[in-house]
Amino acid sequence: MSYDVDDFHREAVATPSHEDVTEMRRLLVETLEAAGIDPTVDDVGTVRASRGGGDPHVVLNTHIDTVPPHVGYERDGDVVRGRGACDAKGPLAALLAAFFDADVESGRLTLAVSHDEETTQTGGAHLARTLDADGVIVGEPTDLDVCTAARGQFEGSVTIHGESAHAAEPASGTNAIRAASVVVQGLETYDESHGPGEHPVLGRPTLTPTLIEGGEATNQVPGECTITFDRRSVPPESVDDCLSQLEAHLDGLMPAGVSLSVSLLRPEMPAPEAFATDEDAAVVRRLQAASGGDLRPFGAATEASYFAADAPTVVFGPGVLADDDGPVAHATREYVDRTDVHRAAAAVTDAVSELLG
């Protein structure tokens, strides 16, 4: 089979995968099979395929799911529009080309495409636990820059515990909502005394209160109040370290009679940690030389963080998260220049060939 980047990209963008990835997964599997590759689908739904054997081992990763709603395929000259055009079916089309075309004379090349990057990210976390890689290229819209770092991201909640009472006798209870202002101020001051400080590539972390909920009746002193927060971390902070240190910090600010607890909002889901790959790593140097792109951090959380804990990892691909007119990825105007898809394919092909040829 002669793989055609544009044909695959067109069919992929035209295939809805915002609610169910079954048809998109079938397209990917059939494309691999038509090229004489025998792919597998693992226990969580990730498509895997390999060429060669032994070490070093390079992994090409991206995802087949998209955010809703589905937006159909359109093409105007070299500009392709539609849901997934750049996030991440454009990168997928490029990585597939590299998987087929790269010289793999020594070592092994694995294509690993997850199914839930936009939601739970269980696929990427499972891959990281079951793959032993020496270098990973994660396909996302980076405008062909080589992104070597990204902030971590998780959401948590601070639950303030007071004591309910009748509003006619407020002093007989302990108003949890009154303590909310102390918690909000504590979130603002946390990084001054407990945070990891400014990272040389990623800058400062952020800790942002995003939701507040408390009280059950208009004539009752509220006994509980919950504040939800968004954390964008930088190395070397981990999720567990942040949660424990934040709880201790806020607890020390509480007035008498008030206690609190800090927890992950969705503890059953993996949370991407912050990472920064050494810019001297082979996968970075080879891809930067092949693409000519700048070295910089990536602006969003991706599955790259799961791989970066054990292997040099970069984020790379055609398309942009946003342009001068506003958001692109995840927006109804999502688009990619197909010439950039071809350039990405050539760059990854050359980089992998240098690493494994």
Can you give a write-up of this model?
The chain contains nine helices and 20 strands. By secondary structure, it is α+β, with helices and mostly antiparallel strands. The strands form six sheets. The protein has a six-stranded mixed β-sheet, sandwiched between helices. Helix 1 runs antiparallel to helix 3, helix 3 packs parallel to helix 9 and helix 7 crosses helix 9. The radius of gyration is 23 Å and the shape is elongated. The model has no long low-confidence stretch (mean pLDDT 96).
Q: Brief description of this entry?
A:
This protein has helices at residues 5-14, 22-34, 89-101, 122-130, 180-193, 239-251, 282-291, 304-308, 338-356; strands at residues 40-41, 47-53, 57-63, 74-76, 79-81, 107-114, 135-139, 146-150, 152-161, 165-166, 206-214, 220-221, 224-233, 259-264, 275-276, 295-297, 313-316, 322-323, 326-327, 335-337.
Please list the strands of the largest sheet in the order they lie side by side. Answer: 1-2-6-3-7-17
> pLDDT under 50 segments (min length 5)?
none
Number of strands: 20
Q: Count helical runs.
A: 9
Determine Rg (CA atoms, Å): 23 Å
Proportion of beta-strand residues: 25-35%
